[in-house]
Structures are given as structure tokens and as C-alpha cells.
Amino acid sequence: MTETGLYARLMPALTLPRLLVRTVFSLAVASVALAASPVAADTADTAPADTPGSSIQAPVTPAEYYAGLLAAQPEDAAVVVDPAIGGLAEPAEVTEAVHAAFGPLGVPYQVVVTPFAGIGGMAVSGEMVPALHDRLGTDGIYVLLPPEGRPLEVRAYGVDVPVDAGTRAVDAGLDYDAPAADVARVLAEAMADPAVADALEAEAERAEAAPEAWADFLEDIDPTRFNGPENLGFLAGTVAGILVTAGGWAVWLALRRGRGAVAATTAAGAVALAAAAVVVPYPYVLDAPVGGHEIPDPLELVRMEEPYVVSTGRVEHIAERLAGDPLYVDPLNPQPRDGLEEVAATLSDGSVPVYAAVVNLDSDDEAEGDPDILAAALASVAGREGIYLVAGPAFDASSVQVGAAAHGVEVDSFALWSPIYDIEEPTPALAVDAAVTALREEAEMEPAQDARFTPQFADDEPILPGPRSERYWSGGLWGGLLLVGPLVAAAVIGSYYLTVLLVRNLRSGAGRTVLGPRALRRIARRETRRLRTLLSARGDRVPEAYMPQAEAALILMDRGVEGLDLLGTAVLARRVTAAAENPGADDLGPCLVNPLHPAATQRRGTRLDPSGSGALCAACAELTDDQRQTRVLRLRTRTTAHSYLKSPKDPWIQHRFGADRPRTLVDLLLKEDRVH
């Protein structure tokens, strides 16, 4: 069935039996709406009008317009699909799908699918469906749907139908841009069985509970997406870069320890794993089915060839009207009609005829609200020589936008577009008049028998991604392999070393050259706690000679000592624990530079000790004496920080924290006068 036939099917003349069962008010409303409808206008325009613009009619509201069309259909199954709907489905297909959805409910239904009742229309305030019901006066389900998206209004009058279940099901089970046919199906299914809505909501909740980050990650590396192969290549390259860098670090460690065989095996394994990280995803990139962004948008393909729109019902009707009058005014256009009759009288002046259509525009209509697309479709369908203008509301509805196209006229598309693209007038009459004047003054237009007009938008080829293989290898793999992967690996390795260093410092205080009272007390508590645990669990492992020192450390800690006594308590407890864990080890005492360092292993000449020689840990033994001087442990008080060696006659210093004459040290420590 053609779109013109669809108009005739949607809008037949009212029959006498039908009128008799309607109320007087419904009769009047239907008559007014039908007088403004395309079919009624077609009947009136079979003969030329007496004066230009005489067929211009006052605007009607969407409720008036669609109530008239619904009244002309069976009372229990009325569906009106505006031929100006956008999307990929023909109005006849949508009509059939809506009937198939609501028919099984067994209740009367009145459904309107239109792009002209949403933004700025009556549906925003919820007035459209009540107005339809007031005009029709019949019970049943009333539904107002856009071509794509959520129902604008759904109400039930005089029938027991769970409308809320239907809207809940649509919200939970469909995308926000779902076509009207799918919305009608889910809406009706949930009205018939509310359990459908419950099931869809439960499924939506499960989907929301799923890890969103993981779902987004999988979507980003989908080879069918516009940047999918590039993202997957970048990921593979990054993993390979991490493996190569980590492998190189492991090889360096092995060589440093003299393990050549381990180094060779590690190098081979790292290279093999890195190669696998790059090669394994490649077959998936190539074998994934074509889809997503790799398939041109069907509407983009429609825009490239005549008639440039899917649904031609509206442009066919306009073309028929323009055959008898150079100006057509859509009854649904809400803008003022002032001055249109005068403009119509000037359209035929000039060597090239001009046809103008004042229509309603919306992003959901067949031209996506673009007057240039609708003008090109009109010129293509009309097939008569001339310039075709389409004027309609701009996005904010406060001004008029104009589009132009040509048929059988030698004129460049840019020459049509450039004079009128910035027209901003408050009324259609002013906008059309300005467009006609600008075109006749600035555009060179000559009739030509075989002239073919191609609108600018038809030259825009769909933007499709290149071959997957090329995008995988060059789109991000090398950046991940050579830059990001090594940086990530270096960051991880650096974090590892930093963590190890921090742990060691926390355990031993080795990294600190200045210790405050709180930090020193934490260290002392930790060391004496380890000593208590050792004595209670494995006290027999503590050498007999160290037991007095162990008791002294625990007694001092319980007495709450401060300063050097607190440092000595920590060192003494650590020495006892070390002697129990490693019996027979050479005991050179604590490191002179910092008693909290690992135990001394060597003696070196140093100015730190009055004797000129001191026991040092392995790290401090490698330093110069000047470096050792700067790294001596300092104990901070409230006012200053000083070297722990400040008082050389203190028993802790004289006896090197129990390394020299420990028995004497213990006797001195346990005197009451050392309690602070």
C-alpha cells in the first residue's frame, strides 16, 4: 500500500451510521478535524482555488486533528500513525504492529503514533490523551506514542487494565530509543499479564547489579565498535610491554646473582608470553561477526539516494496539494498564518516556479526535523520543474527555519543553501518571502530538461572504520608495547621496592636518622612484644647469658622509660631475640651509626667512637666516615634533636647496649634512679 493510500485509509469520510452513534459534540469535533485533514483538503482542492492561498486554514491542535482521524475508525480498534513518522518502519507496518499488540487485550483501544505531540506539545503537560477522550467520548485504552522512545501518555477509561504495569515494563525492558512497534508490544503484554513487568524489572535489577566497569570494558574492546580493534590492540600491547619489562627486571636480578641459566630461561619466557599476549587476541579481532559501527546507519544510506526519506506519505500528500496551489500549509503547523496569502501570490513570478510548504517539524519526523531533507524529498516525489521550499518551526519554535531543493533546474546545491541558511524570521510568511527574494537575487537558476539536483547532505558518505587488522596493529599496539606497558611495569616494580623499603624501615627504624618520642616508643613496644612472645612460646631457646638482659628490657618497658632508655630497651630486646633465633652467630653488637640498623658485621675506623674504631652494619661500613657522621641516629625532644651519642658516659653508650659487660649494664639499669 502506498503512503497516499495510507492517508486515504486513515482518513475516510464519516458514514451516516457512524455519525448517529456519536454524540453531537464528537460529530462537531470530527467534522472540524476532517475539514483540516489531508483527505478532506484533497477533496476541496480537486479544482483550482479562486485566489492564491485561499486554501490556507487556521491551525488546529494535535488533539483536534487526531481525534478526527480516530473518529473515522472502528470505535473498539482505532490506530492512527502519522505518515510523517521517522525511523525505518513504514507507517503501514507500524499500524499493523500496533493492532497486533493491542488486539489480544480484548478491550477497546485508541492509539496515536505521532512525532508532533512531544516537546512543546500537549503531551508534556499530560493534556493530549484527556483531550482525545473528551472529544471521542468512548471508553478504552488511550495511548500516545512517539515514533521512537517512551510512551508520552497511557490512560485507561472505563476498563480495568493495569496501565502502570505496562509503563513499568517498557521502562525496564526496552532501550530509550525503542521503536513504537516494540513499545506497543511490551506495553500490551504487561497489561495482559503484570508478571511480565515484574520479570523485566527483576532482569533489569540483575543487569544493574552486574559489574558495570567490566561490562564497559568488554564493550570498549568489542571489534565491531568504532575503536574496538584499536583498544584491544592497545591492551594487548600494554600487557606485552609489562611482560617484557618485568622479564628484563627478572633477568637483571638473575644475572646480578650469577644465575645465567635462570636469566636465559626468564628472558625466553618473557618474550614468549609477550608474543602470546599480542597474537592470541588477533584471531578474535578478525573472526568477530561484522556489526556495530562497521555497518552504516540505515538512515544515512536512505539520505544518500532519492527520495531521501523512508516514509513518503507526507511528501506525497504535499506534492499533490502543490499541483494546484504553489503554497501548502500544514494544519498542524502552530505558527501564525499572517501574510501567507500575499506570499503565495508571488511564488509563480519569475522564470523558475517556486513551491513552498509550511509544515510542522520535529526531530522524530521522517526528515529528522531538517527542512533541507524534507525539501529534497518533496522535490524528488513531486517531479515538477521548480524550486521547493520547506518552512517550519526551529528547535525553540520561536523562529522559522527554511530548507530548499530543486527539480529540473540547473543550480548548485550550495547556491540554494547559502542564501537562506541564516534566515531567522518570526513567521512563515516572512521566512518564505525572504527565501524567495534571496534565491532570485543571488542564485543563478535556469530550467534544464535533464538537470539533476543533488542535495549537499546526500554527498556525505557514512563514516565507517577501516580494516580491523590495520587498526589492531597500528591503532594502539605499539604505544602500549613501547610506552604505556613499560611505564606501568616500572611503576609496579618501583612500588614493590618502595613497599619493601617502608616495611623494613617500619620494622627496624633503619631508614630514619631522627626519631621522635612516639616513633621510638612504637619501636620499643614492638621489639619487647616480640621478646615476650619468644619467652612464652620458646623460652628455652634464649641463651642463659641473655636472660638477665631479657628481664631488664621487659622491666624497663613496664616502667615507662623515655629518651635514650627507651632506645636502649628496644635495642636490648632486639639483641636477645636475635640471639635466640640465630644461636652461635658472631655478635659485634649494634651498629654505631644507628643501633636500630641490622647488627654490626664489621669494624671500621671512625671518629664516632673515642677509640677510633667502631662496629658497623654492612651498609654503614660501605660509607665514608663523613657520610656516617651525617647519618648518626638523632633523638628528638620537644625543643631539639640530638645525637644518641651525646652522653658518652651513659651506661647504654659505655656498654654498647649490652655488647660489652652486659651484667654490669643490667645492674646499672635496674637502679631506681634510672626510672623516669
3D architecture notes:
The chain has about 675 residues and is an alpha/beta fold. Helix content is about 50%, strand content about 10%. The chain contains 29 helices and 15 strands. Strands 1-2-3-4 form a 4-stranded mixed β-sheet, sandwiched between helices. Strands 5-6-7-8 form a 4-stranded mixed β-sheet, sandwiched between helices. β1, α6 (about 90-100) and β2 (about 110-115) form a beta-alpha-beta unit. α8 (about 165-175) packs across α9 (about 180-190). The longest helix has about 30 residues, at about 475-510. The protein is elongated and about 125 Å long. The protein starts with a helix and ends in a 7-residue tail after the last helix. Mean pLDDT is about 85; it is low at about 1-55.
Percent range of helical residues: 40-55%
Main structural class? alpha/beta
Q: List how many beta strands DSSP finds.
A: 15
Strand content: 5-15%
Mean of residue pLDDT values: 84
Low-confidence stretches: 1-54
Shape: elongated
